[in-house]
Design a protein that fits this description.
Number of helices: 9
CATH architecture of the largest domain: 3-Layer(aba) Sandwich
Strand order of the largest sheet: 7-8-6-10-12-13-14
Helix content: 10-25%
Number of strands: 25
CATH superfamily of the largest domain: Peptidase S8/S53 domain
Radius of gyration: 30 Å
Largest sheet: 7 strands, parallel
Number of domains: 3
Distance between the termini: 66 Å
Length: 566
Protein backbone atom coordinates (compact mmCIF):
# COMPACT_ATOMS: atom_id res chain seq x y z
CA UNK A 1 0.00 0.00 0.00
CA UNK A 2 0.98 3.62 -0.14
CA UNK A 3 2.62 3.76 3.28
CA UNK A 4 4.76 0.74 2.49
CA UNK A 5 6.01 2.47 -0.63
CA UNK A 6 6.87 5.54 1.46
CA UNK A 7 8.79 3.44 3.97
CA UNK A 8 10.70 1.75 1.17
CA UNK A 9 11.57 5.12 -0.31
CA UNK A 10 12.83 6.29 3.05
CA UNK A 11 14.99 3.21 3.48
CA UNK A 12 16.48 3.68 0.04
CA UNK A 13 17.17 7.32 0.84
CA UNK A 14 19.01 6.27 3.99
CA UNK A 15 21.16 3.83 2.03
CA UNK A 16 22.01 6.58 -0.44
CA UNK A 17 23.08 8.99 2.28
CA UNK A 18 25.20 6.39 4.04
CA UNK A 19 26.78 5.41 0.74
CA UNK A 20 27.55 9.04 -0.02
CA UNK A 21 29.15 9.41 3.38
CA UNK A 22 31.35 6.39 2.80
CA UNK A 23 32.61 7.89 -0.43
CA UNK A 24 33.36 11.30 1.08
CA UNK A 25 35.04 10.31 4.34
CA UNK A 26 38.20 12.34 4.81
CA UNK A 27 40.69 9.65 5.80
CA UNK A 28 44.14 10.59 7.11
CA UNK A 29 45.82 7.38 5.97
CA UNK A 30 45.39 4.16 7.91
CA UNK A 31 44.24 4.57 11.49
CA UNK A 32 46.89 3.10 13.81
CA UNK A 33 46.31 1.92 17.34
CA UNK A 34 45.72 4.88 19.65
CA UNK A 35 44.98 7.28 16.78
CA UNK A 36 41.62 9.08 16.35
CA UNK A 37 39.46 7.96 13.41
CA UNK A 38 38.68 10.66 10.85
CA UNK A 39 35.28 12.32 10.84
CA UNK A 40 32.51 10.93 8.69
CA UNK A 41 31.47 13.63 6.22
CA UNK A 42 28.14 12.96 4.50
CA UNK A 43 28.84 15.50 1.78
CA UNK A 44 31.64 17.88 0.87
CA UNK A 45 29.40 19.67 -1.66
CA UNK A 46 28.20 23.06 -0.31
CA UNK A 47 25.06 22.77 -2.46
CA UNK A 48 23.83 19.97 -0.20
CA UNK A 49 23.78 22.27 2.84
CA UNK A 50 20.48 24.11 2.54
CA UNK A 51 20.71 27.61 3.97
CA UNK A 52 24.36 27.02 4.85
CA UNK A 53 23.40 24.95 7.92
CA UNK A 54 25.87 22.25 9.01
CA UNK A 55 25.15 19.72 11.75
CA UNK A 56 28.35 18.81 13.62
CA UNK A 57 28.63 15.92 16.07
CA UNK A 58 31.65 16.04 18.41
CA UNK A 59 33.51 13.08 19.86
CA UNK A 60 31.75 13.53 23.20
CA UNK A 61 28.35 12.98 21.53
CA UNK A 62 27.17 16.59 21.59
CA UNK A 63 25.74 18.34 18.53
CA UNK A 64 26.03 21.85 17.18
CA UNK A 65 24.56 23.62 14.14
CA UNK A 66 26.88 26.01 12.32
CA UNK A 67 25.58 28.44 9.70
CA UNK A 68 27.69 29.87 6.87
CA UNK A 69 26.76 32.63 4.45
CA UNK A 70 29.26 31.84 1.68
CA UNK A 71 30.36 28.71 -0.12
CA UNK A 72 34.06 29.37 0.27
CA UNK A 73 33.78 29.74 4.03
CA UNK A 74 31.66 26.57 4.18
CA UNK A 75 34.11 24.51 2.09
CA UNK A 76 37.03 25.61 4.31
CA UNK A 77 35.12 24.72 7.50
CA UNK A 78 34.19 21.26 6.20
CA UNK A 79 37.85 20.45 5.48
CA UNK A 80 39.04 21.79 8.84
CA UNK A 81 36.46 19.81 10.80
CA UNK A 82 37.22 16.66 8.87
CA UNK A 83 40.88 16.90 9.91
CA UNK A 84 40.41 18.28 13.41
CA UNK A 85 40.11 15.00 15.30
CA UNK A 86 37.45 16.57 17.53
CA UNK A 87 34.52 15.88 15.20
CA UNK A 88 32.99 12.47 14.49
CA UNK A 89 30.21 13.40 12.00
CA UNK A 90 29.51 16.27 9.63
CA UNK A 91 26.25 16.44 7.66
CA UNK A 92 23.53 18.80 6.41
CA UNK A 93 20.93 19.81 8.98
CA UNK A 94 18.14 18.08 7.06
CA UNK A 95 14.59 19.42 7.00
CA UNK A 96 11.71 17.10 7.93
CA UNK A 97 8.01 17.63 7.35
CA UNK A 98 4.97 16.05 8.96
CA UNK A 99 3.36 13.13 7.15
CA UNK A 100 -0.02 14.36 8.36
CA UNK A 101 -2.40 15.92 5.85
CA UNK A 102 -1.05 19.33 4.96
CA UNK A 103 -3.81 21.65 3.73
CA UNK A 104 -3.94 24.52 6.19
CA UNK A 105 -7.57 23.63 6.95
CA UNK A 106 -8.42 23.51 10.64
CA UNK A 107 -10.10 20.08 10.68
CA UNK A 108 -7.88 18.22 8.21
CA UNK A 109 -6.32 16.13 11.00
CA UNK A 110 -9.71 14.41 11.45
CA UNK A 111 -9.93 13.39 7.79
CA UNK A 112 -8.42 9.94 8.16
CA UNK A 113 -9.72 8.93 4.73
CA UNK A 114 -7.28 11.32 3.07
CA UNK A 115 -4.24 10.59 5.23
CA UNK A 116 -4.31 7.89 7.91
CA UNK A 117 -1.36 7.64 10.31
CA UNK A 118 -3.22 5.24 12.60
CA UNK A 119 -4.00 7.80 15.30
CA UNK A 120 -7.59 8.68 14.34
CA UNK A 121 -10.05 8.34 17.20
CA UNK A 122 -13.57 9.63 17.57
CA UNK A 123 -12.64 10.79 21.06
CA UNK A 124 -10.72 13.59 19.34
CA UNK A 125 -13.86 14.71 17.52
CA UNK A 126 -16.44 14.86 20.29
CA UNK A 127 -17.27 18.48 19.54
CA UNK A 128 -18.73 17.62 16.13
CA UNK A 129 -22.07 15.83 15.59
CA UNK A 130 -22.17 12.21 14.51
CA UNK A 131 -25.10 11.41 12.26
CA UNK A 132 -26.90 8.08 12.04
CA UNK A 133 -28.14 5.91 9.17
CA UNK A 134 -31.94 5.50 9.24
CA UNK A 135 -32.15 3.86 5.80
CA UNK A 136 -35.15 1.65 5.25
CA UNK A 137 -36.08 -0.40 2.24
CA UNK A 138 -38.94 1.37 0.49
CA UNK A 139 -38.60 3.12 -2.84
CA UNK A 140 -35.63 5.15 -4.03
CA UNK A 141 -33.96 6.90 -1.14
CA UNK A 142 -30.70 7.96 0.36
CA UNK A 143 -28.59 5.24 1.93
CA UNK A 144 -27.31 7.16 4.96
CA UNK A 145 -29.56 9.72 6.53
CA UNK A 146 -28.75 12.49 8.90
CA UNK A 147 -30.73 12.56 12.10
CA UNK A 148 -29.89 10.03 14.82
CA UNK A 149 -26.63 10.46 16.75
CA UNK A 150 -24.54 7.29 17.09
CA UNK A 151 -22.23 6.43 20.01
CA UNK A 152 -18.58 7.38 19.70
CA UNK A 153 -16.44 4.73 18.10
CA UNK A 154 -13.38 5.06 20.32
CA UNK A 155 -13.14 1.26 20.26
CA UNK A 156 -12.55 1.30 16.50
CA UNK A 157 -8.79 1.06 15.93
CA UNK A 158 -7.23 2.78 12.95
CA UNK A 159 -4.50 1.31 10.78
CA UNK A 160 -1.86 3.52 9.21
CA UNK A 161 -1.94 3.54 5.43
CA UNK A 162 -5.66 2.83 5.07
CA UNK A 163 -6.43 5.97 3.08
CA UNK A 164 -6.79 7.10 -0.52
CA UNK A 165 -3.30 8.63 -0.75
CA UNK A 166 -4.55 12.20 -1.10
CA UNK A 167 -1.34 14.01 -0.19
CA UNK A 168 0.73 12.14 -2.76
CA UNK A 169 -2.08 12.47 -5.32
CA UNK A 170 -2.23 16.24 -4.89
CA UNK A 171 1.53 16.47 -5.45
CA UNK A 172 1.17 14.55 -8.71
CA UNK A 173 -1.95 16.41 -9.84
CA UNK A 174 -0.62 19.94 -9.63
CA UNK A 175 -3.15 22.20 -11.33
CA UNK A 176 -4.75 19.54 -13.50
CA UNK A 177 -5.37 19.85 -17.24
CA UNK A 178 -9.08 20.60 -17.75
CA UNK A 179 -12.38 21.17 -15.94
CA UNK A 180 -15.27 18.80 -15.24
CA UNK A 181 -18.82 19.00 -13.89
CA UNK A 182 -19.93 16.38 -11.36
CA UNK A 183 -23.67 15.82 -10.95
CA UNK A 184 -24.64 15.17 -7.33
CA UNK A 185 -28.07 13.50 -7.38
CA UNK A 186 -28.98 13.40 -3.71
CA UNK A 187 -30.77 15.56 -1.19
CA UNK A 188 -30.17 19.27 -1.58
CA UNK A 189 -27.01 21.13 -0.56
CA UNK A 190 -26.40 24.11 1.71
CA UNK A 191 -25.15 26.29 -1.12
CA UNK A 192 -24.24 29.07 1.34
CA UNK A 193 -21.78 26.92 3.30
CA UNK A 194 -18.45 28.82 3.57
CA UNK A 195 -16.41 25.74 2.62
CA UNK A 196 -18.39 25.19 -0.58
CA UNK A 197 -18.01 28.65 -2.03
CA UNK A 198 -16.47 28.41 -5.48
CA UNK A 199 -17.04 24.65 -5.59
CA UNK A 200 -20.52 24.57 -7.11
CA UNK A 201 -21.43 24.51 -10.78
CA UNK A 202 -22.84 27.77 -12.09
CA UNK A 203 -25.16 27.91 -15.07
CA UNK A 204 -23.47 30.73 -16.96
CA UNK A 205 -26.45 31.11 -19.30
CA UNK A 206 -28.90 31.84 -16.49
CA UNK A 207 -29.36 35.21 -14.77
CA UNK A 208 -29.99 34.48 -11.07
CA UNK A 209 -33.26 35.59 -9.54
CA UNK A 210 -34.89 37.27 -12.53
CA UNK A 211 -37.73 34.76 -12.78
CA UNK A 212 -36.95 34.04 -16.43
CA UNK A 213 -35.73 30.87 -18.14
CA UNK A 214 -32.84 32.72 -19.77
CA UNK A 215 -31.22 29.69 -21.41
CA UNK A 216 -34.49 28.16 -22.57
CA UNK A 217 -33.84 24.76 -21.02
CA UNK A 218 -37.22 24.61 -19.31
CA UNK A 219 -35.98 25.53 -15.83
CA UNK A 220 -36.29 29.03 -14.37
CA UNK A 221 -33.30 30.36 -12.41
CA UNK A 222 -31.49 27.02 -12.31
CA UNK A 223 -28.30 28.76 -11.25
CA UNK A 224 -26.56 25.84 -9.49
CA UNK A 225 -28.88 22.99 -10.47
CA UNK A 226 -32.49 22.03 -9.88
CA UNK A 227 -34.80 20.58 -7.23
CA UNK A 228 -36.54 17.62 -8.88
CA UNK A 229 -38.03 16.55 -5.55
CA UNK A 230 -40.23 19.67 -5.36
CA UNK A 231 -39.81 20.83 -8.98
CA UNK A 232 -38.37 24.25 -8.18
CA UNK A 233 -35.02 26.01 -7.98
CA UNK A 234 -34.70 25.81 -4.18
CA UNK A 235 -31.68 23.61 -3.62
CA UNK A 236 -31.63 23.87 0.17
CA UNK A 237 -34.54 23.23 2.52
CA UNK A 238 -32.72 22.87 5.86
CA UNK A 239 -31.47 19.88 7.82
CA UNK A 240 -33.10 17.40 5.43
CA UNK A 241 -30.30 18.35 3.04
CA UNK A 242 -27.45 17.31 5.36
CA UNK A 243 -26.75 14.17 3.34
CA UNK A 244 -26.17 15.98 0.06
CA UNK A 245 -24.20 18.76 1.76
CA UNK A 246 -21.90 16.14 3.27
CA UNK A 247 -21.29 14.50 -0.12
CA UNK A 248 -20.59 17.85 -1.78
CA UNK A 249 -17.92 18.65 0.83
CA UNK A 250 -16.20 15.30 0.39
CA UNK A 251 -15.95 15.87 -3.33
CA UNK A 252 -14.98 19.51 -3.57
CA UNK A 253 -14.90 21.53 -0.33
CA UNK A 254 -12.34 24.30 -0.66
CA UNK A 255 -8.85 23.23 0.37
CA UNK A 256 -6.25 25.50 1.88
CA UNK A 257 -8.71 28.23 2.78
CA UNK A 258 -7.86 27.97 6.46
CA UNK A 259 -11.26 26.70 7.60
CA UNK A 260 -12.98 23.37 8.06
CA UNK A 261 -12.11 20.43 5.87
CA UNK A 262 -10.43 19.76 2.56
CA UNK A 263 -12.37 18.31 -0.33
CA UNK A 264 -10.58 15.71 -2.44
CA UNK A 265 -10.78 17.55 -5.75
CA UNK A 266 -8.24 20.37 -6.01
CA UNK A 267 -7.27 23.42 -8.05
CA UNK A 268 -10.84 24.50 -8.80
CA UNK A 269 -11.11 22.05 -11.70
CA UNK A 270 -14.19 20.22 -10.37
CA UNK A 271 -17.61 21.83 -9.98
CA UNK A 272 -20.57 20.15 -8.28
CA UNK A 273 -23.99 20.40 -9.97
CA UNK A 274 -26.64 20.18 -7.24
CA UNK A 275 -29.61 18.04 -8.28
CA UNK A 276 -32.03 17.43 -5.44
CA UNK A 277 -33.99 14.23 -6.09
CA UNK A 278 -34.44 13.15 -2.46
CA UNK A 279 -36.18 15.04 0.33
CA UNK A 280 -38.20 15.01 3.51
CA UNK A 281 -37.11 13.61 6.86
CA UNK A 282 -36.59 10.13 5.40
CA UNK A 283 -34.63 11.19 2.34
CA UNK A 284 -37.11 9.63 -0.08
CA UNK A 285 -37.26 10.17 -3.80
CA UNK A 286 -38.78 8.48 -6.83
CA UNK A 287 -37.81 6.91 -10.11
CA UNK A 288 -39.06 10.00 -11.92
CA UNK A 289 -37.08 12.50 -9.84
CA UNK A 290 -33.83 10.56 -10.28
CA UNK A 291 -34.37 10.01 -14.02
CA UNK A 292 -35.18 13.68 -14.57
CA UNK A 293 -32.05 14.65 -12.66
CA UNK A 294 -29.89 12.35 -14.80
CA UNK A 295 -31.29 13.79 -18.01
CA UNK A 296 -30.76 17.35 -16.75
CA UNK A 297 -27.18 16.55 -15.75
CA UNK A 298 -26.25 15.17 -19.14
CA UNK A 299 -28.03 17.95 -21.03
CA UNK A 300 -26.14 20.56 -19.03
CA UNK A 301 -22.63 19.19 -19.38
CA UNK A 302 -22.02 16.81 -16.48
CA UNK A 303 -19.52 14.00 -17.11
CA UNK A 304 -19.58 12.13 -13.77
CA UNK A 305 -22.61 11.42 -11.59
CA UNK A 306 -22.70 10.47 -7.90
CA UNK A 307 -25.64 8.28 -6.81
CA UNK A 308 -25.61 7.78 -3.02
CA UNK A 309 -29.09 6.28 -3.13
CA UNK A 310 -30.65 2.88 -3.60
CA UNK A 311 -33.56 0.49 -3.64
CA UNK A 312 -34.07 -3.27 -3.69
CA UNK A 313 -36.55 -2.92 -6.54
CA UNK A 314 -35.29 -3.43 -10.06
CA UNK A 315 -36.22 -0.24 -11.91
CA UNK A 316 -36.31 -0.77 -15.71
CA UNK A 317 -36.81 2.93 -16.44
CA UNK A 318 -33.79 3.93 -14.37
CA UNK A 319 -31.75 1.09 -15.84
CA UNK A 320 -32.43 2.25 -19.38
CA UNK A 321 -31.70 5.88 -18.51
CA UNK A 322 -28.31 5.01 -17.03
CA UNK A 323 -27.45 2.51 -19.76
CA UNK A 324 -28.04 5.07 -22.52
CA UNK A 325 -26.10 7.82 -20.77
CA UNK A 326 -22.51 8.74 -21.63
CA UNK A 327 -21.79 9.73 -18.01
CA UNK A 328 -19.83 7.65 -15.50
CA UNK A 329 -22.07 6.75 -12.54
CA UNK A 330 -20.57 6.10 -9.09
CA UNK A 331 -23.15 4.34 -6.92
CA UNK A 332 -23.25 3.38 -3.24
CA UNK A 333 -23.57 -0.40 -2.88
CA UNK A 334 -26.01 -0.13 0.04
CA UNK A 335 -26.03 -0.61 3.80
CA UNK A 336 -27.80 -3.95 4.29
CA UNK A 337 -24.67 -5.98 5.05
CA UNK A 338 -25.69 -8.45 2.35
CA UNK A 339 -24.23 -10.12 -0.71
CA UNK A 340 -25.63 -8.17 -3.66
CA UNK A 341 -24.56 -10.94 -6.02
CA UNK A 342 -27.51 -12.78 -4.45
CA UNK A 343 -29.81 -9.89 -3.49
CA UNK A 344 -29.14 -6.90 -5.73
CA UNK A 345 -29.36 -3.30 -4.60
CA UNK A 346 -30.05 -0.86 -7.41
CA UNK A 347 -28.66 1.11 -9.20
CA UNK A 348 -25.27 -0.09 -7.88
CA UNK A 349 -26.00 -3.69 -8.91
CA UNK A 350 -26.78 -2.89 -12.53
CA UNK A 351 -24.25 -4.74 -14.68
CA UNK A 352 -23.52 -1.72 -16.84
CA UNK A 353 -20.21 -0.58 -18.27
CA UNK A 354 -20.69 2.96 -16.95
CA UNK A 355 -21.45 2.09 -13.30
CA UNK A 356 -18.97 1.76 -10.41
CA UNK A 357 -20.33 0.16 -7.22
CA UNK A 358 -18.63 1.18 -3.96
CA UNK A 359 -18.45 -0.50 -0.54
CA UNK A 360 -17.77 1.13 2.85
CA UNK A 361 -14.27 0.76 4.32
CA UNK A 362 -13.41 1.51 7.95
CA UNK A 363 -10.23 3.19 9.17
CA UNK A 364 -8.75 -0.19 10.14
CA UNK A 365 -8.99 -1.64 6.64
CA UNK A 366 -12.11 -3.72 7.19
CA UNK A 367 -15.34 -3.68 5.24
CA UNK A 368 -17.97 -2.21 7.56
CA UNK A 369 -20.46 -4.81 8.79
CA UNK A 370 -23.37 -2.85 7.29
CA UNK A 371 -21.75 -2.49 3.87
CA UNK A 372 -23.10 -4.56 1.02
CA UNK A 373 -20.55 -6.67 -0.80
CA UNK A 374 -20.28 -8.91 -3.83
CA UNK A 375 -17.34 -10.29 -5.76
CA UNK A 376 -19.24 -9.54 -8.98
CA UNK A 377 -21.57 -6.66 -8.11
CA UNK A 378 -19.33 -4.43 -5.92
CA UNK A 379 -16.24 -3.09 -7.64
CA UNK A 380 -14.13 -1.65 -4.84
CA UNK A 381 -14.28 -0.12 -1.36
CA UNK A 382 -13.47 3.39 -0.21
CA UNK A 383 -13.41 5.10 3.20
CA UNK A 384 -16.98 5.53 4.41
CA UNK A 385 -17.03 5.17 8.20
CA UNK A 386 -16.89 8.28 10.41
CA UNK A 387 -16.21 10.65 7.54
CA UNK A 388 -15.99 14.32 8.47
CA UNK A 389 -17.46 16.73 5.95
CA UNK A 390 -19.69 19.74 5.53
CA UNK A 391 -23.23 19.75 6.94
CA UNK A 392 -25.63 22.70 6.97
CA UNK A 393 -23.82 25.61 8.62
CA UNK A 394 -21.14 23.40 10.16
CA UNK A 395 -19.31 20.06 9.96
CA UNK A 396 -20.24 16.55 11.03
CA UNK A 397 -19.40 12.85 10.81
CA UNK A 398 -21.44 10.40 8.77
CA UNK A 399 -21.03 6.71 7.97
CA UNK A 400 -22.25 4.52 5.14
CA UNK A 401 -21.68 3.59 1.54
CA UNK A 402 -23.18 7.02 0.80
CA UNK A 403 -19.98 8.50 2.20
CA UNK A 404 -17.73 6.05 0.33
CA UNK A 405 -19.22 6.78 -3.10
CA UNK A 406 -18.28 10.50 -3.14
CA UNK A 407 -14.67 9.51 -2.43
CA UNK A 408 -14.63 7.55 -5.67
CA UNK A 409 -16.57 10.27 -7.50
CA UNK A 410 -13.98 12.86 -6.48
CA UNK A 411 -11.17 10.51 -7.51
CA UNK A 412 -12.85 9.96 -10.88
CA UNK A 413 -13.09 13.72 -11.36
CA UNK A 414 -9.40 14.17 -10.57
CA UNK A 415 -8.34 11.41 -12.95
CA UNK A 416 -10.52 12.86 -15.71
CA UNK A 417 -9.19 16.39 -15.24
CA UNK A 418 -5.56 15.26 -14.91
CA UNK A 419 -5.48 13.14 -18.08
CA UNK A 420 -6.81 15.50 -20.73
CA UNK A 421 -7.24 12.74 -23.32
CA UNK A 422 -9.12 10.37 -21.02
CA UNK A 423 -12.75 9.35 -21.46
CA UNK A 424 -15.12 8.37 -18.62
CA UNK A 425 -14.52 4.75 -19.64
CA UNK A 426 -10.76 5.30 -19.25
CA UNK A 427 -11.41 6.75 -15.81
CA UNK A 428 -13.35 3.71 -14.63
CA UNK A 429 -10.72 1.30 -15.95
CA UNK A 430 -7.94 3.33 -14.31
CA UNK A 431 -9.61 3.48 -10.89
CA UNK A 432 -10.37 -0.25 -10.84
CA UNK A 433 -6.96 -1.34 -12.11
CA UNK A 434 -5.02 0.64 -9.49
CA UNK A 435 -6.78 -0.31 -6.25
CA UNK A 436 -4.66 -1.13 -3.21
CA UNK A 437 -5.28 -4.76 -2.22
CA UNK A 438 -6.63 -5.45 1.25
CA UNK A 439 -7.10 -8.92 2.77
CA UNK A 440 -10.56 -8.02 4.09
CA UNK A 441 -11.77 -7.21 0.57
CA UNK A 442 -10.65 -10.44 -1.07
CA UNK A 443 -13.77 -12.30 -2.18
CA UNK A 444 -15.90 -9.31 -1.21
CA UNK A 445 -15.30 -6.97 -4.15
CA UNK A 446 -14.41 -7.48 -7.80
CA UNK A 447 -11.00 -5.84 -7.40
CA UNK A 448 -10.26 -7.02 -3.87
CA UNK A 449 -8.95 -3.56 -3.10
CA UNK A 450 -9.57 -0.02 -1.90
CA UNK A 451 -9.44 3.24 -3.79
CA UNK A 452 -5.87 4.45 -4.36
CA UNK A 453 -5.97 7.92 -5.91
CA UNK A 454 -2.20 8.38 -5.95
CA UNK A 455 -1.78 5.15 -7.94
CA UNK A 456 -4.56 6.17 -10.33
CA UNK A 457 -2.74 9.42 -11.09
CA UNK A 458 0.51 7.54 -11.72
CA UNK A 459 -0.74 5.60 -14.75
CA UNK A 460 1.13 6.44 -17.98
CA UNK A 461 -0.78 8.93 -20.12
CA UNK A 462 -0.55 6.72 -23.18
CA UNK A 463 -2.94 4.28 -21.51
CA UNK A 464 -5.77 6.78 -21.96
CA UNK A 465 -7.43 5.61 -25.18
CA UNK A 466 -10.53 7.79 -25.24
CA UNK A 467 -12.69 4.67 -25.53
CA UNK A 468 -16.46 4.93 -25.06
CA UNK A 469 -18.68 2.85 -22.80
CA UNK A 470 -20.22 -0.24 -24.34
CA UNK A 471 -23.97 -0.78 -24.25
CA UNK A 472 -24.89 -4.22 -22.88
CA UNK A 473 -26.39 -5.58 -26.08
CA UNK A 474 -26.32 -8.93 -27.81
CA UNK A 475 -28.18 -11.18 -30.24
CA UNK A 476 -30.60 -12.61 -27.68
CA UNK A 477 -34.15 -11.34 -27.24
CA UNK A 478 -35.77 -11.33 -23.79
CA UNK A 479 -37.55 -14.53 -22.74
CA UNK A 480 -40.97 -14.50 -21.04
CA UNK A 481 -42.34 -17.57 -19.26
CA UNK A 482 -45.77 -17.56 -17.56
CA UNK A 483 -47.82 -19.98 -15.51
CA UNK A 484 -51.29 -19.83 -13.94
CA UNK A 485 -52.76 -21.13 -10.71
CA UNK A 486 -56.54 -21.16 -10.24
CA UNK A 487 -57.37 -20.06 -6.71
CA UNK A 488 -61.18 -20.09 -6.93
CA UNK A 489 -62.37 -16.62 -7.84
CA UNK A 490 -58.79 -15.45 -8.33
CA UNK A 491 -56.12 -16.53 -10.78
CA UNK A 492 -52.45 -16.13 -9.83
CA UNK A 493 -50.17 -15.41 -12.76
CA UNK A 494 -46.47 -16.09 -12.23
CA UNK A 495 -44.20 -14.45 -14.79
CA UNK A 496 -40.46 -14.68 -15.30
CA UNK A 497 -38.57 -12.39 -17.69
CA UNK A 498 -34.91 -13.07 -18.46
CA UNK A 499 -32.36 -11.80 -20.96
CA UNK A 500 -29.15 -13.71 -21.65
CA UNK A 501 -27.34 -10.52 -22.67
CA UNK A 502 -28.20 -8.65 -19.47
CA UNK A 503 -29.68 -5.67 -21.31
CA UNK A 504 -33.36 -5.95 -20.40
CA UNK A 505 -34.76 -2.44 -20.12
CA UNK A 506 -38.56 -2.42 -20.46
CA UNK A 507 -41.33 -4.66 -19.11
CA UNK A 508 -45.03 -3.75 -19.46
CA UNK A 509 -48.39 -5.48 -19.82
CA UNK A 510 -51.88 -4.65 -21.09
CA UNK A 511 -55.28 -6.22 -21.55
CA UNK A 512 -56.00 -7.91 -24.85
CA UNK A 513 -53.96 -9.69 -27.48
CA UNK A 514 -51.40 -7.04 -28.51
CA UNK A 515 -48.53 -7.29 -30.93
CA UNK A 516 -45.06 -5.92 -30.29
CA UNK A 517 -45.80 -3.04 -32.66
CA UNK A 518 -48.95 -2.16 -30.72
CA UNK A 519 -46.96 -1.87 -27.50
CA UNK A 520 -45.07 1.06 -29.12
CA UNK A 521 -41.77 0.27 -27.48
CA UNK A 522 -43.47 -0.01 -24.09
CA UNK A 523 -45.32 3.31 -24.22
CA UNK A 524 -48.70 1.56 -24.63
CA UNK A 525 -48.63 -0.57 -21.51
CA UNK A 526 -48.59 -0.69 -17.74
CA UNK A 527 -45.02 -0.99 -16.37
CA UNK A 528 -44.14 -3.78 -13.98
CA UNK A 529 -40.89 -4.72 -12.31
CA UNK A 530 -39.23 -8.07 -11.72
CA UNK A 531 -36.99 -9.15 -8.87
CA UNK A 532 -33.35 -10.19 -9.11
CA UNK A 533 -34.40 -13.50 -10.62
CA UNK A 534 -36.69 -11.83 -13.15
CA UNK A 535 -39.93 -12.86 -11.45
CA UNK A 536 -43.20 -11.20 -10.49
CA UNK A 537 -46.69 -12.36 -9.51
CA UNK A 538 -50.05 -10.95 -10.62
CA UNK A 539 -53.55 -11.68 -9.32
CA UNK A 540 -56.64 -11.32 -11.53
CA UNK A 541 -60.33 -11.79 -10.70
CA UNK A 542 -61.69 -11.58 -14.22
CA UNK A 543 -61.35 -14.11 -16.97
CA UNK A 544 -59.62 -12.14 -19.68
CA UNK A 545 -56.69 -12.01 -22.07
CA UNK A 546 -53.43 -10.26 -21.17
CA UNK A 547 -50.25 -9.55 -23.11
CA UNK A 548 -46.82 -9.18 -21.53
CA UNK A 549 -44.08 -7.27 -23.35
CA UNK A 550 -40.31 -7.08 -22.82
CA UNK A 551 -37.66 -5.10 -24.72
CA UNK A 552 -33.87 -4.92 -24.42
CA UNK A 553 -31.44 -2.13 -25.20
CA UNK A 554 -30.62 -3.67 -28.56
CA UNK A 555 -34.27 -3.26 -29.56
CA UNK A 556 -35.23 -6.92 -29.38
CA UNK A 557 -38.88 -7.35 -28.38
CA UNK A 558 -40.84 -10.27 -26.99
CA UNK A 559 -44.60 -10.58 -26.42
CA UNK A 560 -46.44 -13.39 -24.67
CA UNK A 561 -50.27 -13.42 -24.61
CA UNK A 562 -52.25 -15.54 -22.16
CA UNK A 563 -55.97 -16.16 -21.57
CA UNK A 564 -56.98 -16.76 -17.98
CA UNK A 565 -58.82 -19.95 -17.14
CA UNK A 566 -61.27 -19.88 -14.22
Amino acid sequence: MKKRRSVLSLLLACVTVIGMGAQTVQAQGNVQSGETAPALVVSMDPEDYSGGDVLVQYRDGTFEVKTFDGQTELETALKEWADSGEVSLIQPNYTYESTALSTGDTLSSLQWALSNDGSFSMEDAASYPVYGSPWTISGIQDIAGASTPMPLASELPSMAGVDIGAQEAWSIYGNGSRDVVVALIDTGVDTSHPDLQGSLWVNADEIPGNGIDDDGNGYIDDTNGWNFYANNNQLYAGTEDSHGTHAAGTIAAQSGNGIGISGIARAGRVKVMVLKALGGNSGLGSSLSVIQAIRYAEANGATICNLSLGTLSNDPALYETIAKSSMLFVAASGNNGMDTDVTPCYPASYNLDNVISVGNLTSNGMLHTTSNYGVVSVDLAAPGTYILSTVPGSYGFMSGTSMAAPMVTAAAAMVYTYYDTSSPADVKRTLLSTTAPLPALQGKTATGGMLDLAAALSVPREQMTGAAFQLPSGPNAPQIVTSQLNMGETVMIAIRVTDADGDLCTTVYNKGALTAEQFQGGANGIPFVVDGGGSNIFFAKESDTYSFYARDLAGHETVVTITLNQ
